[in-house]
TrEMBL record, chain A:
Organism listed in the record: Chinchilla lanigera (Long-tailed chinchilla)
Any Pfam family hit: Roc
Protein task: Required for KRAS signaling regulation and modulation of cell proliferation. Regulator of KRAS prenylation, and probably prenylation of other small GTPases. Required for lymphocyte development and function. Not required for myeloid cell development.
Family matches, as PANTHER family: DRAB5-RELATED (PTHR24073)
Protein name: Rab-like protein 3
Any one GO molecular function term: protein homodimerization activity
Keyword DNA damage: no
Subunit structure: Homodimer. Interacts with GPR89; the interaction stabilizes GPR89. Interacts with RAP1GDS1.
Top-level taxonomic group: Eukaryota
Keywords: GTP-binding, Nucleotide-binding
Automatic annotation (TrEMBL), chain B:
Pfam families: ABA_GPCR, GPHR_N
Protein's UniProt keywords contain DNA-binding: no
Protein name, UniProt field: Golgi pH regulator
TM annotation in the entry: 6-26, 38-63, 75-98, 110-127, 147-169, 288-310, 343-368, 380-402, 422-443
Domain Golgi pH regulator conserved: start-end pairs: 142-207
Keyword terms: Membrane, Transmembrane, Transmembrane helix
Annotated GO CC locations: Golgi cisterna membrane
Originating organism: Chinchilla lanigera (Long-tailed chinchilla)
Similarity annotation: Belongs to the Golgi pH regulator (TC 1.A.38) family.
Length: 236, 455
């Protein structure tokens, strides 16, 4: 059973948004009882059935790499974090629905990962401004998850959900809003569970089934410019 | 009439300080968080504004701006407001926000925060007992009682920060202490880190698969319910769950290792950056400053020891002493009064500005390091409390750096405190803090290179 294929998905977001709780919920179907700060990176594994219910069903391991820290960390921390960004097949962006700044910081997080080949001192060419072209070229599937939904009052819910819909659109990604302390949000058959499943399927497809002629992000020797296709040297 | 003009000047400056505190809060401290409770921001800015006003009044005292009666009035008023904030408002709000974070006590926030505040007041009062800071003729609820206790806490804080800063400053500036770090070291450590992560992943995969098989087979590995369930679990235990606990322990150990490796790698990157920085022009300048500061630090430790051992407290301030030396030994004649005023103004001004700036920078670093979205309110209020106490005790201690004629107003306003005690206490804590920082840095420095040598 240890010979199942694997994909690597990063879970990014500001400090305290609930990434560790989310990862624990996704992998162990249980609520995390005592969340504490993540130092460095914590990994967990989820067993996922690709194309469940069809004849082509196959089981994969999905590694969820939960990277701790904040966007404004020292450059030494940022340089160390880049070691976790190799060979990434999917990115889950987590933000806190009660904290607008964490949603805004998602742009900087995604740029930190997508730009990891450039100068490692963390000097971003675009000053963190959102650039549609970069995201259009991006081949890594993204998913936006908003946490702490239970702490949003009923009256404000509509306004918050509209804002997050725009955010997900910017990233060209699906979005899920939930509360990590309540497993029923991801109950089997709910729309959230379907979206999650679809996201993981897309990640697996990108990694294993769309090799020829397309760029595979995350290889250590990829060239230093965006866009276009290039010869890919892939090895497992 | 002049009183009105003076008051309007004071109020304008207070509003300026308030605005500055507000901006600092928004731009620096709460950069990554959303401000939902404006009370916190207001309290922080008000504390900052009133603390800065005290320093402003000292400067006015030296320069002779505004009439002395209005200065005295504003001193008293300022002091009352600051004490009110530091002793009553901030502790109450700290208790309130702390209790709001705990889900269980959410309904009865107010009574619990009042309880916390009363506990704080009790310990605050008890603080005055072991110290010989008051004469018994003072009433129980006078300003002197409150100021003396606030002064003790604030002076301790100042001395701790001072001691640590005096030792840490040359240690960070001088490149003599930089360890040699090469790119290969960093790569080797990163490789170890990734290997550890891979080991964690493979163990977690086994656990995930084992859980899935158990779930599919319908085995219940939760706590068995009912009487017979409990008896059964004592004698037999599912082999699957036993394996899981074993693997979980291994995973915990590996995760701890990965955290250590991560922190070490961060350390190496930081050292590498510092090495590169030390090769630049600015770096060389700071290196030179570092040597200078290390001499200053040794001198201060020496002076503190002498003060304690020989039980003496300086009577004259550095300005007057410096002028005396130049007049008596070097024979240069100049107008003592005129120059002493200006020089003490510059000296006191520099002390004030550097201590405010230093404190704000330290507070910001501290805040980034320990705060999270849940506790940010409580931490900011704690920082505001520390800041207020720090500034109040700076006023206490700055008295020693001023010539005699300017000291009177502080002595008058603050009442008859035992100022000498505070200076002695500062020296003691400074010495303790500096020596323990030296010990601490020495141990940290020794331990680090050995870690990297290990295969």
């Amino acid at each position: 059973m240890a010979s199942l294929d694997r994909v690597k998905v990063l879970v990014l977001g500001d400090s305290g948004v609930g990434k560790s709780s989310l990862v624990h919920l996704l992998c162990q179907n249980q609520v995390l009882g005592n969340p504490s700060w993540t130092v460095g990176c914590s990994v967990d594994v989820r067993v996922h059935d690709y194309k469940e219910g069809t004849p082509e069903e196959k089981t994969y391991y999905i590694e969820l790499w939960d990277v701790g820290g904040s966007v404004g960390s020292a450059s030494s921390v940022k340089s160390t974090r880049t070691v976790f960004y190799n060979s990434v097949n999917g990115i889950i962006l987590v933000h806190d629905l009660t904290n607008k700044k964490s949603s805004q910081n998602l742009y900087r997080w995604s740029l930190e990962v997508l730009n990891r080949d450039s100068v490692p001192t963390g000097v971003l060419v675009m000053n963190g401004d959102y650039d549609q072209e970069k995201f259009a070229d991006n081949q890594i599937p993204l998913l936006v998850i908003g946490t702490k939904l239970d702490q949003i009052h009923e009256t404000k819910r509509h306004e918050v959900l509209t804002r997050t819909a725009f955010l997900a659109e910017d990233f060209n990604a699906e979005e899920i809003n939930l509360d990590c302390t309540n497993p029923r949000y991801l109950a089997a058959g709910s729309s959230n569970a379907v979206k999650l499943s679809r996201f993981f399927d897309k990640v697996i497809e990108m990694r294993y089934f769309l090799r020829d002629g397309n760029q595979i992000p995350g290889l250590p020797d990829r060239k230093r410019f965006w866009g276009g296709t290039f010869k890919n040297l892939h090895y497992d | 009439m002049s009183f009105l003009i003076d008051s309007s000047i004071m109020i304008t400056s207070q509003i300026c300080f308030f605005g500055f505190g507000w901006l600092f809060f928004m731009r620096q401290l709460f950069k990554d968080y959303e401000v939902r409770q404006y009370v916190v921001q207001v309290i922080f800015s008000v504390t900052f504004a009133f603390s800065c006003t005290m320093f402003e009044l000292i400067i006015f005292e030296i320069l002779g701006v505004l009439s002395s009666s209005s200065r005295y009035f504003h001193w008293k008023m300022n002091l009352c407001v600051i004490l009110l904030i530091l002793v009553f408002m901030i502790p109450f709000y700290i208790g309130y926000f702390f209790v709001s974070n705990i889900r269980l006590l959410h309904k009865q926030r107010l009574p619990f925060s009042c309880l916390l505040w009363l506990t704080f007041m009790y310990f605050f009062w008890k603080l005055g007992d072991p110290f010989p800071i008051l004469s018994p003729k003072h009433g129980i609820l006078s300003i002197e009682q409150l100021i003396s206790r606030v002064g003790v806490i604030g002076v301790t804080l100042m001395a701790l920060l001072s001691g640590f800063g005096a030792v840490n400053c040359p240690y960070t500036y001088m490149s003599y202490f930089l360890r040699n770090v090469t790119d290969t070291d960093i790569l080797a450590l990163e490789r170890r880190l990734l290997q550890t992560m891979d080991m964690i992943i493979s163990k977690k995969k086994r656990m995930a698969v084992a859980r899935r098989t158990m779930f599919q087979k319908g085995e219940v590995h939760n706590k068995p319910s009912g009487f017979w369930g409990m008896i059964k679990s004592v004698t037999t235990s599912a082999p699957g769950s036993e394996n899981l606990t074993l693997i979980q322990q291994e995973v915990d150990a590996l995760e701890e290792l990965s955290r250590q490796l991560f922190l070490e790698t961060v350390d190496l990157y930081a050292t590498k950056e510092r090495i590169e920085y030390s090769k630049t022009f600015k770096g060389k300048y700071f290196n030179f400053l570092g040597y200078f500061f290390s001499i200053y630090c040794v001198w201060k430790i020496f002076m503190a020891t002498i003060n304690i051992v020989f039980d003496r407290v300086g009577k004259t301030d550095p300005v007057t002493r410096g002028i005396e030396i130049t007049v008596n030994y070097l024979g240069i004649q100049f107008d003592v009064k005129f120059w002493s005023q200006h020089i003490s103004f510059i000296l006191v001004g520099i002390i004030i500005v550097t201590s405010i700036r230093g404190l704000l920078i330290t507070l910001t670093k501290f805040f980034y390091a320990i705060s999270s979205s849940k506790s940010s309110n409580v931490i900011v209020l704690l920082l505001a409390q520390i800041m207020g106490m720090y500034f109040v005790s700076s006023v206490l201690l700055i008295r020693m750096s001023m010539p005699l004629e300017y000291r009177t107003i502080i002595t008058e306003v603050l009442g008859e405190l035992q100022f000498n005690f505070y200076h002695r206490w500062f020296d003691v804590i400074f010495l303790v803090s500096a020596l323990s920082s030296i010990l601490f840095l020495y141990l940290a420095h020794k331990q680090a290179p050995e870690k990297h040598m290990a295969p």
